[in-house]
């Protein structure tokens, strides 16, 4: 009975070990290839990648923070939210980003069509340049652009509808029959015969 339990435990260990190894890339496998038990593998991976005091984890988070771009997000709120989460994670592992550095990092993640806005923010007095001010200005500018974009879309939609209606009117007019001359394509009031004979019925 004891042997069966031990064998069952070994089988489970082997399956767990295999699952962990299959999930690892070549870079991770080289760190754990000398280990034989899933618990040892897991602890080694945690030591390398997960601990709160790990310099590697700080490096990974900072690299991600510096590489974030507005274009990869649905909007400004999403972009700023991701930056905030990364800063929170860095804080939780014992690293701290200076307020001014974070403000500059956020501005660096904006595309070129934001250069005028970025220039305006960078020219703020030193006492006003802070992360909160940068976020507030960027959110306001994003809202303004969305509003303007919506106005243009509505104008384009209205123009498109008008063209469609005009086209339908012209199509319908081509099927008309003039009661004056019997020809198609115009109303009696527009008939050339009426112009030649104003007194005619």
TrEMBL record:
Family annotation (InterPro entries): Znf_CCHC, Znf_CCHC_sf
Top-level division of the source organism's lineage: Eukaryota
Keyword tags: Metal-binding, Zinc, Zinc-finger
SMART domains cross-referenced by the UniProt entry: ZnF_C2HC (SM00343)
Record's keyword annotation contains GTP-binding: no
Species the sequence originates in: Trichuris suis
SUPFAM superfamilies associated with the record: Retrovirus zinc finger-like domains
Protein name, as recorded: CCHC-type domain-containing protein
CCHC-type domain: residues covered: 178-191
A single MF term (Gene Ontology): zinc ion binding
